[in-house]
Amino acid sequence: MQFKSKVRTCLWFAKGGQAAAEFYVSLVPESAIDAVYEHGQADDPMIVEFTLAGAPMMILTAGPHHELTPAASISVLTKDQSETDRLWSALLADGGEAGMCGWLKDRYGVSWQIIPEALPLLLADPDRDAAARAQEAMMQMNKIEIAELEAAARS
């Protein structure tokens, strides 16, 4: 077995790893399935290597011995509200769960942070009062709403 990347993030799945990887690469531009290693399990391959927007990833489908946890998540920095909305909706579809402050859990149990580029810029504003207002607004949100953050920072 020869892996594409020396370092990659590995997510442990009890089942359905290939379906999850295929779903993920369909959502994020510049993503692809790189390799599938069946190890006698053609219906649910043991290892799927894939790339998400240039970031090497791997799913190991190896049974229910370990559970996914929000302590490890996939963070996506989105360009605008449209991309934020598209990813948020797709990842919540078919059983995902919304969390606070841009966090969610998809139908496979993987935690994601969907963060518009505007958020870290607003939080780093040299006007610390504006940054605090943006942060306070963010703390009230599930999906991040850029216009609401900007309005809070200006108020």
Short description:
This protein is of the alpha/beta class and 155 residues long. It folds into two domains: 1-66, 2,3-Dihydroxybiphenyl 1,2-Dioxygenase, domain 1, CATH 3.10.180.10; 68-155, 2,3-Dihydroxybiphenyl 1,2-Dioxygenase, domain 1 (Roll), CATH 3.10.180.
Question: What does it look like?
Answer:
With 155 residues, this protein is an alpha/beta fold. It folds into 2 domains: 66 residues, 2,3-Dihydroxybiphenyl 1,2-Dioxygenase, domain 1 (Roll), CATH 3.10.180; 88 residues, 2,3-Dihydroxybiphenyl 1,2-Dioxygenase, domain 1 (Roll). The strands form 2 sheets. It has a 4-stranded mixed sheet, with helices on one face. It has a 4-stranded mixed sheet with strand order 5-8-7-6. Strand 6 and strand 7 form a beta hairpin. Helix 4 packs antiparallel against helix 5. The longest helix is centred in the middle third of the chain and has 12 residues. It is elongated. The model has no long low-confidence stretch (mean pLDDT 94).
